[in-house]
């Protein structure tokens, strides 16, 4: 893992510039035994060339056999051990959409869902309603009051929203109310420790009020709450890595995790295309040492079980890649935060294909294309994702020698 005390001692403010391109949920599986994964199926001449010229490997987001959430997976890529820095998704979502999360606050991510007349969930994502419909539902919830508690609530993308509870005696040790299944009712908020009993009771009061306000507003006629969390006060990129870092992403959660580590989040629109994102990176390139660029829809198509659509997203990234390559970064890393095989329809534990291209400092290997099987034999081997940032800094000549 990235030892932050060591990084502070060894990093220098000068050196090459770095792009970290993350295709969310990049890793996949074949549709049939012996077949090709989504990445292997995709026509990716630009990434394949970089694989031949650079180094490849497979990253392990958290630890072997563990399927990570997006928050921990991105923290790992940023060099923060997700087993040490355990951050709930509520903070990431809330900060990502501009809500303020202070010490003692509890941030929560919400999902609109569809329930039937019996109160059982029929769709955990309310048919993936458009953002404008989510905004209308949030307006219905803004007048909910809780004694002694200030509530901030804002719409996120599509069926998502976030809220922040502020008041005395709050604690974030509360379990999610999403049962992760259909045909059953939403779960009550349950405290995992005595200190969180009041917070769980307040959450249940809020849920009861939300149920009444959303009644008849199908398909988004109920909510589930996830990722109860508070500000973790993470070490910041400028301090640890001496990098002026920026984030180009469209979804709030990824902006949130970037803000938590001290990156400047660049203004984007949810409807940005991949080319729009890459053009934005080009626009800000001269002002930053490190740019994290996030592509969401590889993950979404995997969760939908749409193998061909995930292939298409990967191909769109490859087609737009020259925009980033024309910036002449010292280091270009292309990877995913985790695997989301279309055949699995969920985040999985499979190691993630990773490509490191750093002209002049990388070790070429035998990879002929960017895909899971080529990466299995790559020079980077299988490594923990938290080791990626030190490798990026080293290849950018931003680390001095350790010891005499």
What would your notes on this structure say?
The chain is an alpha/beta fold and 404 residues long. It folds into 2 domains: 4-85 and 234-395, Alkaline Phosphatase, subunit A (3-Layer(aba) Sandwich), CATH 3.40.720.10; 92-229, Alpha-Beta Plaits. Helix content is 31%, strand content 18%. It contains 15 helices and 13 strands. The chain has helices at 4-10, 38-41, 45-53, 70-77, 89-96, 131-141, 197-214, 237-240, 252-260, 274-284, 297-303, 307-320, 322-325, 372-376, 388-395, and strands spanning 18-23, 55-60, 106-115, 121-123, 150-155, 160-166, 222-229, 245-248, 264-265, 290-295, 331-335, 352-357, 381-384. It has an 8-stranded mixed beta sheet with strand order 9-8-10-1-11-12-2-13, sandwiched between helices. Strands 3, 4, 5, 6 and 7 form a 5-stranded antiparallel beta sheet that branches. A hairpin with a 5-residue loop joins β3 and β4 (121-123). The protein is globular. The mean pLDDT is 95.
**What are the low-pLDDT stretches, counting only 5+ consecutive residues below 50?**
none
* Percentage of β-strand residues: 15-25%
Determine the fraction of residues in helical runs and give it as a percent range. 25-40%
Q: Whole-number average pLDDT?
A: 95
Number of domains: 2
In N-to-C order, the SSE pattern is HEHHEHHEEHEEHEHEHEHEHHHEEHEH
By helix and strand content, what is the structural category? alpha/beta
Number of H/I helices: 15
